[in-house]
Design a protein that fits this description.
The chain has seven helices and 34 strands. By secondary structure, it is an alpha/beta fold. The strands form eight sheets. It has an eight-stranded parallel beta barrel with strand order 22-23-24-25-26-29-31-32, surrounded by four helices. It has a six-stranded antiparallel β-sheet with strand order 4-3-5-10-7-8. The protein has a five-stranded antiparallel β-sheet with strand order 1-9-6-11-2, with no helix packed on it. The protein binds alpha-D-glucopyranuronic acid. Alpha-D-glucopyranuronic acid binds next to loops.
């Protein structure tokens, strides 16, 4: 009996392990895809009955089998087809009132039809699932992914059936010490399959990813490198940029890569001129298209130079939340609304906090001429000495860069926010910074630091990580967590010859609440705070930009003041329903003069 169980288990492992997670595929919007978005059935599984037996061992009779009773006496205690549905992509918190505060496991199931194309492969692509996902196709375990804001994909060619298929995802958004982010963070822990789910049609040999960049202004050179999904020599990849009259065919080397430089003088991408070029990449008769802009970005002394010219980053911080009323956003329309509000403020730059936002948002910002700071959620007190936590953070960093490395508008990769000083933290973060630079040495590296000493109105920033970043950024909350009346007396000391960004400042106001400037939560209090901060910060030597906290009131479980916060962080310049607060005009006018 024991031998049979082991044998069955081994068979099961063999069957399921043939499905594999494959390296992240780039430029999904430019590929042949079929959407699996729509209504998915869901089962809320508080005690993970669908995954563990009553001894807390993973069970092989779990919900992933989508079992149905075959005989009258059969006992199957779940039925996806009878379960309610919710929208994917989306979060469960705003779609099912009972799940507003819910953190735990929810199973999702969807049936779909598939007609295989002879000789083609199919990938199953998730743009993001928060937080911990086990994915099954027709009962086969495809893999396990952690991290709520970056994509992952599986080659499911062998698991797909002709005709009907069943995909099941176990999603668990419980917060844990070793996670990234860790147990506490000041945003809503929206759970679910929060971004697109797609079937991607590829040839057995396909272009996994590529990078196309302007090397330097002087050289007028564009560099192109491409990587196939396999290490094979002799494959011909053709790059075409019709408007630049460029057509170049490369042949891959034994490691499946190829690269080249080309002379070119493209119009440069910038906020005033967000010029994008259509780019075609062809392999084996299959062409995928992308839209790419060309620009250079660098730090020189205390200046940030875009296309060789000093630029001031007139920014605002944004959370990935629908313009009206909360919930994860995941569309070009939602992004366009939020980014238009930023444009109204006079912004040429946004900080997408504190995690990689969806690809629609990044691409829409690129079309709208908005530069981007993109960040991974290494936030507050991460489990620095836990190597799995480090690998998790590094993976999120690498996936963020792989997904967006061809976006001209992304100028800064941020590796952390407000992290407490320690050797373990420095080791963790310095490794991440070096990893980022090894993956992409064409952009600026930064992180949101904190002021380290503030006696006698002298604010000093001292952080070992200054060695690893190109831009020194810090958050400060004079006027909110510190007295606004001190602002005029404040002095700032940032002892590094690098550009300085104030990555956060701000204060709360309940839209429509009016009163004296020293009355907390009034619009007048926030308005005054902005005036004082802008006057104070413009004295900082080397100030190259800012991203005040924050564009819009956003949901947070840490904000519980009834009648004022009601589970919203109220530091927005817009209310949660899009009303402008008085401070909006202070910042707009200040940016208007810059
Ligand atoms: C911090 C943090 C934000 C938070 C903000 C606040 O600086 O980075 O995530 O929301 O402060 O307190 O409002």
């Amino acid at each position: 009996m024991k031998r049979l169980t082991i044998f069955l288990l081994l068979v099961n492992i063999f069957l399921t392990s043939s499905a594999k997670e494959v390296p992240l595929v780039g430029n999904i919007p430019g590929r042949q895809t079929a959407s699996l978005n729509g209504d998915w059935h869901y089962i809320v599984d508080v005690q993970e009955e669908g995954y563990y037996d009553y001894r807390m061992n993973p069970t092989r009779w779990g919900f992933f089998r989508n079992d149905k009773p075959r005989r009258p006496e059969d006992l199957i205690e779940y039925d996806f087809d009878k379960a309610p549905t919710m929208q994917v992509p989306g979060d469960w918190n705003t779609q099912d009132q009972q799940l507003f505060f819910y953190e735990g496991t929810v199973w999702f199931m969807r049936r779909f039809n598939h007609q295989p194309k002879a000789g083609h492969h199919t990938l199953l692509y998730f743009e993001a699932v928060n937080y911990d996902a086990h994915v099954y196709l027709n009962g086969n375990h495809l893999g396990h992914h952690v991290g709520g804001f970056t994509p992952f994909n599986y080659d499911v060619t062998e698991q797909l059936h002709e005709g009907e298929n069943v995909v099941i995802v176990k999603v668990d958004n419980k917060r844990r010490k070793e996670n990234v982010p860790t147990q506490i963070f000041d945003w809503w822990n929206y759970g679910g399959i929060t971004r697109d789910v797609l079937l991607v049609d590829v040839e057995p040999v396909y272009v996994e990813n590529y990078s196309l960049q302007l090397e330097s202004l002087e050289g007028c050179q564009i560099s192109f490198s491409v990587k196939l999904n396999c290490e094979e020599a002799g494959h011909e990849v053709t790059l075409a940029i019709p408007e630049l009259r460029i057509t170049k065919t490369l042949t891959t080397a034994a490691d499946g890569t190829a690269s080249c430089f080309m002379k070119a003088k493209p119009e440069l991408w910038s906020p005033d001129h967000p010029r994008l070029y259509r780019v075609d990449i062809t392999l084996g008769g299959n062409t995928m298209t992308d839209e790419i802009g060309f620009r250079t970005i660098e730090a020189r002394g205390k200046q940030i130079l875009l296309n060789g010219e000093p630029i001031f980053l007139k920014g605002i911080s944004i959370h990935e939340e629908k313009p009206n009323g909360g919930g994860r956003c995941n569309s070009t329309e939602d992004a366009h609304t939020l980014l238009s509000w930023a444009k109204e403020l006079g912004c040429n730059y946004v900080r997408l906090a504190h995690y990689p936002h969806n690809e629609y948002a990044v691409r829409e910002a690129e079309r709208m001429g908005i530069m981007v700071w993109s960040e991974i959620p290494v936030y507050w007190t991460i489990d620095w000495t836990n190597f799995d936590t480090y690998l998790n953070a590094e993976r999120q960093l690498s996936d963020m860069i792989q997904r967006d490395k061809n976006r001209a508008n992304i100028i800064i990769w941020s590796i952390a926010n407000e992290t407490p000083h320690s050797d373990a933290r420095d080791n963790f973060l310095s490794r991440l910074a070096q990893k980022a630079r090894s993956l992409d040495d064409t952009r600026l590296i930064s992180m949101a630091m904190e002021v380290t000493s503030a006696s006698n109105y002298k604010n000093r920033l001292q952080d070992n990580m200054h060695r690893y970043v190109d831009v020194v950024s810090f958050n400060q909350y004079i006027g909110w967590y510190r007295d606004v009346n001190d602002a005029p007396k404040m002095e700032w000391e940032v002892p590094y010859d690098k550009p300085v960004i104030v990555s956060e400042f701000g204060g709360g106001a309940r839209a429509g609440l009016h009163g004296a400037v020293n009355q907390r939560w009034t619009e007048e209090f926030q308005e005054n705070l902005y005036r004082e901060n802008l006057a104070m910060l413009s004295k900082i030597d080397g100030l190259a930009g800012m991203s005040p906290w924050i564009l819009k009131d956003f949901r947070s479980p840490r904000r519980v003041l009834v009648g004022i916060q009601d589970y919203y962080n109220r530091k927005g310049l817009f209310s949660d329903s899009g009303e402008k607060k008085k401070a909006f005009f202070v910042l707009r006018d200040w940016y208007g003069k810059r």
